[in-house]
Amino acid sequence: MEIALQGKRVLVTGGSRGIGRGIVLAAARAGANVVTCYRQEGEAVESLKAALKETSGDHHVLRADVGEIAHVDQLLAETKERFGSLDGVVNNAGVISHIPFAELPADEWSRVVDTNLTAAYRVIQQSLPLLNQGSSIVNIGSRGAAAGIPLRAHYTAAKAAMIGLTRSLAKELGPRGIRVNVVAPGVIETEAFDTMPAERAAGLRATYAQKTALARLGTVDELAGPVLFLISDLSRYVTGETVNVDGGI
Ligand code: NDP
Fold first, then answer.
1. Which residues pair with 183 in a beta bridge?
2. Could you tell me the distance, in angstroms and rounded to a whole number, from the CA of residue 21 to the centre of ligand 1?
3. Which helix (H) or strand (E) holds 86?
4. Does residue 14 have its Cβ closer than 6 Å to ligand 1?
5. What pairing do the DSSP bridges indicate for beta strands 242-245 and 179-185?
6. Which residue stretches of 84-194 are H helix?
7. What is the pLDDT of residues 118-151, one digit of tens each?
8. What is the DSSP pairing of strand 60-63 with strand 33-38?
């Protein structure tokens, strides 16, 4: 089934690679106009721009490090200039690291919390003047936040906090007709798998596949689908929810 986002204006953070890239391209193909951002220049950015040119719509790929408040403010100022208003915001940009808690440096805690959580605070706050009646905010969490994962206390703490942020904002912004939800991915296979040694990738696939009811990892498109549903008017009575997209872990 195709979801129609014709003419909707959507901001997706961290769209150059992985899940964010999948959401950006799926939204553009569904008829949305998309603004997205990235941190590092490179081939991924250029190929995203090229892929977006293949779709109709008014798309903008901008450089902004969402871990920096000033960059977020600039991103939203540019979004306002180009679009005037927004119908959807997807807080996708995220970073992770694997470090024993006893050795976790304060600056790494801050980097992970700033990018995964504080960025969402600032993006949503600065989007508020742009958000139309009926608009939708989707925060990308993680299935691991509810489960807990060793060596990722900082990451899961930030992702769990996304749920509190979402629940409270669903109530605070609901009277304005703004919906706020979390999509919590399980293990989604992105290009990152292509950059690892084949044996390690196969090992990860096998380990995680046996944890899911569907006995396999998810694809970027399978994650983008529920996000598009939450941006679209099909979900106009859904707010404050966490949708686990995890193949039935
Ligand atoms: P990737 O590392 O593959 O891609 C992350 C994207 O976000 C890239 O485009 C990256 O751009 C961008 N990004 C990262 N940091 C910043 C920043 N500070 N400012 C702007 N852009 C930034 O991640 P995934 O696609 O795997 O993950 C996407 C989201 O999904 C994250 O929030 C992650 O926590 C969550 N998630 C993913 C899972 C998975 O299995 N893949 C599982 C659970 C949750 P650049 O290259 O320029 O840094």
1. 140, 243
2. 9
3. strand 86-91
4. yes
5. parallel
6. 106-113, 119-127, 143-147, 153-173
7. 999 999 999 999 999 999 999 999 999 999 999 9
8. parallel
**Amino acid identity at 80:** K
Tally Cβ neighbours within 10 Å of residue 61. 17
Element housing 81 (H / E): helix 69-83
Q: Which of 38, 40, 152 to mutate to test the pocket of ligand 1 (most atoms within 8 A of CB)?
A: 38
Q: Is the CB of 93 under 6 A from ligand 1?
A: yes
SS3 55: coil
User: Does pLDDT of 1 surpass 70?
Assistant: no
Task: Please state whether the predicted TM-score (pTM) of the whole model is above 0.70.
Answer: yes
Q: How far does residue 63's CA lie from ligand 1's centre (Å)?
A: 14
Catalytic residue among 38, 121, 155, 237: 155
CATH number of 9-245, picked from 2.60.40.640, 2.30.110.10, 3.30.200.100, 3.40.50.720: 3.40.50.720
pLDDT-derived band at 2 (thresholds 50, 70, 90) equals confident
- Phi then psi for residue 123, to 5 deg, are -60, -45
Is 155 labeled as catalytic in the residue annotation?
Answer: yes
Nearest CA to ligand 1 atom 44: 142
